[in-house]
Design goal:
Number of helices: 9
Number of strands: 0
Mean pLDDT: 87
CATH topology of the largest domain: Tetracycline Repressor, domain 2
Largest sheet: none
Number of domains: 2
Radius of gyration: 23 Å
Order of helices and strands: HHHHHHHHH
CATH class of the largest domain: Mainly Alpha
Low-confidence stretches: 1-7
CATH architecture of the largest domain: Orthogonal Bundle
Length: 219
């Protein structure tokens, strides 16, 4: 019997894995493709006009694959939001866990405002907030996402108490977390609505909060 030439065999190539491992990789790849397509269509047409058929066409998969992996349009978009949310929460944990003074961290968070608007994350979140007004399941998911942000900000506020003379004054960390987070939420909504900085100076107002924090930390 003949043999294959040695040059045709790549002995350094990774083994293809078991059938179960290959199936798992294929499933993960399909889910990632669908999620990317859903995000793209959501940013293009909004939640109300989004169809799973259009997502399937963009992802180049059968419509049945969307229902198999996600069940419904609602669950698909919540999966998109969950992935975006966790990625940004990890970024913020890294930001606020650093050694810089809080005012510098706040200033960096202001930089992230436009970055998050451009990425489409804010649009996705606001779409799901609006959907949650009429859908209890969506509302519960959005509350869970928001809860992660406000718990992080409460930890930041608690840590800041020891670095600011007089501590947090009359505020509990959870209360200060709301005062830190809600202005960003309001700014995002106004910017998405089309307010200019001249009409609604959200960015400059947020920057000036950082100046107040600096004065408190350095006094």
């Amino acid at each position: 019997m003949g043999t294959y030439p040695r040059g045709d065999v790549d002995e350094t190539a990774a083994p293809p894995g078991t059938r179960a491992e290959r199936r798992e990789r294929a499933t993960a790849d399909t889910r990632a493709t669908i999620l990317a397509a859903a995000r793209s269509r959501l940013l293009a047409v909004g939640y109300a006009n989004l169809s799973t058929r259009a997502v399937a066409e963009e992802a180049e998969v059968p419509l049945s694959q969307i229902h198999y992996h996600f069940g419904s349009k609602q669950q698909l978009i919540l999966a998109v939001l969950e992935g975006e949310n966790e990625r940004l929460l990890q970024r913020q944990r890294g930001l606020f866990g650093g050694p810089e003074p809080l005012w510098q961290q706040w200033d960096r968070a202001c930089d992230y405002l436009d970055e998050d608007l451009e990425s489409g994350y804010v649009r996705v979140l606001q779409e799901m907030i609006a959907a949650g007004w009429a859908d209890a399941e969506v509302a519960a998911a959005v509350r869970r996402f928001w809860g992660g942000w406000f718990r992080l900000l409460a930890e930041v506020a608690e840590a800041a108490a020891s670095r600011i003379r007089g501590g947090l004054g009359p505020f509990e960390p959870a209360e200060l977390a709301l005062l830190m987070g809600l202005p960003f939420n309001g700014a995002e909504e106004a910017i998405l609505l089309g307010f200019t900085e001249a009409e609604f100076p959200a960015r400059s107002a947020l920057r000036k909060v950082g100046a107040v924090i600096r004065a408190l930390e350095e006094r």
